[in-house]
Amino acid sequence: MAKVKKQKGLLTVLLALAANLGIALAKTVAALITGSASMAAEAGHSYVDSINEVFLLTALRRSERPADSRHPFGHGTERYFWSLLVAVCIFGMGALFAFIQGIGALLGKGAEEASPLIGYVVLAISAVLEFISWRQAFRETRQHARERDQGFLEFLRTTDDPTAKSVLFEDSAALLGIAFAALGLLTHQLTGSAVGDGIASLLIGLMLSLVAFLLGRTNRELLVGRQARPEVLEGMRRMLTNAPEVEELVDLLTMNVGTDQVLVCARLDFDDSLGAADVERACARLDGELHEAYHEVYEVFLEPVPRDDSGLRERVLARYGRQIADETA
């Protein structure tokens, strides 16, 4: 299953890269011919998207490297780092370039518009190519949501895979940007004024800024260390609590260390009548059951502890608050 997901993710990124390169070149030619600021902004947008696909391909390749002595939990978080660079690139290059084009047009520094028909044709072709890429990203994202029994929007909000999400957001922004550019061309053609074209460029810049913010926020949370999905966390809690050898689940810590890779650390108060060998066998069995029940479980650490340890309770209290701490007392 994981291999199929990786192949689908790679296909999504490669399709987006091929589409963006062709679209960027076509938009550049159209921008030079028409003199449209919004078309130039969209050309810059497509070049930025092409660079971003290279970042995402790098993320896919580097995050799949196996664990080693310096990185015992693997390189899964590399995907978050390169995806964060995508967000930075979208704003630092795409959005700012669109703002510059829009302000220049409003100040009357742009060239006179000519041959708008060429611009319309290029935008129409670009829309078709972008829609093909968007459809692939949408299908992949929807399939992942179904596999997790989540709604589409809920999956986008909670997913730990920023790759397909980045492509989906980029392609959605590209389709919307094409619509803005077409409106800019049309208003310039009808009114003879570059104001509408400049406003369209500014709208493209604002849209890219929003996309950069949303992607940046997602990758910030993942890089800082986000816990497992609530349903997975609750399932693990039930499984450990209901184990016959366990008297009390004292603490449960989880953290994403990569896409579909969750680190699990649990402190358990075992039945005092158990011997050391019994506890060891129980830990080994619970480790296997967690891996079998949840494919995203990467490593499991189980620590036997007394539930009435005051120092441990204070640490749990500091992390979660009094209600949960009281429950573990």
Keywords:
three-stranded mixed β-sheet, 2 domains, mainly alpha, Alpha-lytic protease prodomain-like, disordered C terminus, Alpha-Beta Plaits, 71% helix, 329 residues
Written overview of the protein:
A three-stranded mixed sheet has the order 1-2-3. Helix 1 (2-34) runs antiparallel to helix 2 (37-63) and helix 4 (116-147) packs across helix 5 (152-158). The chain folds into two domains: 2-224, Cation efflux protein transmembrane domain (Alpha-lytic protease prodomain-like); 230-327, Alpha-Beta Plaits (2-Layer Sandwich). The chain contains eleven helices and three strands. Strand 2 (261-270), helix 9 and strand 3 (297-304) form a beta-alpha-beta unit. Helices cover 71% and strands 9% of the residues. Mean pLDDT is 85; it is low at 322-329. It is mainly alpha-helical. The protein has helices at 2-34, 37-63, 78-106, 116-147, 152-158, 162-191, 195-224, 230-241, 276-293, 310-320, 322-327, and strands at 246-258, 261-270, 297-304. It starts with a helix and ends with a helix. Residues 1-26 form the signal peptide. InterPro entries: Cation_efflux, Cation_efflux_CTD_sf, Cation_efflux_TM, Cation_efflux_TMD_sf, SLC30A9. Keywords: Membrane, Signal, Transmembrane, Transmembrane helix, Transport. This is Cation diffusion facilitator transporter. One of its GO terms (cellular component) is membrane.
